[in-house]
Model the fold of this input.
Amino acid sequence: MSSNTSRKLDAGLVCALKLAARGARGILINNHVQNALQIRDQVSALAPFFDFISYDDLKERLQSRSKKKPFCLMTFDDGKAINATETAPELLRLGVPAVFYLVTGAMGGKTAFWFDRLTALRRADGSVELPTLADFKAMPWRERDRVLDELCDRYDVHVDFSDPIARGMSWDEAARLQREGFELGSHTVDHAILTVETEEEAHRQIAASRDEMVQHGLTCRSFAFPNGNATRALVEIALQAGFESTVTTAPVWIRRRDMLSCLPRLYLKERANTLHIHTKALAARTGFALSNPSGEGRSYLFGR
Ligand SMILES: [Zn+2]
Done:
């Protein structure tokens, strides 16, 4: 697409989004490892339509029916080092608050994330026959990690922890983010997809990650479901473990029925340009146009 066509298309989207935003409460954005430039571009694409709010403002804004601009709360899953070294400093400079969801078993590069190990295996040798991403997502985390341990040993593959996109941030970096006013939440101990775990293990993943954060002196009020897979029963377990909110990946703006206990979020890719961000935000406003990146299609329409 020529840049002229893209500009014209975006001008139309901006008008449509401004209309769509009227009367809306807000949106939560689900990010991961955006670098400084990527987050700057995302903020400038969203700023005309939304007020960027902090986690502390969320409760009040969920209930408010004011005629202000709808709110936008930025969230980042996985707690990778780049969030501490690049993303948060840029957000601070822009005055945009955010929530960072940590995987406590991966802090400081203690263990590699399973999806980064799979990427490293794929890069190492294209001829290696590997289970698919969907196969791994269907496995309980212990089995998933056992299969990956075997494959990584067999092909002598390691994740490069010098890369801040591959390494989890350190506890010191997390503490600094909290001191700077960012909210920290939990994203389990082992990035376990909780809908394929036993209830007992799901409870452990949720409660132990929170305990570990608290032991490190961090406040932990919110929980993000890995891969976005959630059920009402899992939300209940998180609330019983002491969380006040959970977030999923249902790709919609905040709806009338949404409460702090379970909030939808719109996933944006690191490389999403302005046109893509505006298109996706508009599609999400319909409440049904986008598929859930959790792999659950449009089941978010009916609740689970
Ligand atoms: Zn994640």
Remarks:
- The chain has two domains: 3-109+168-301, 114-158.
- The pocket of zinc ion is lined by residues 77-78, 187, 191, 226 (CB under 6 Å).
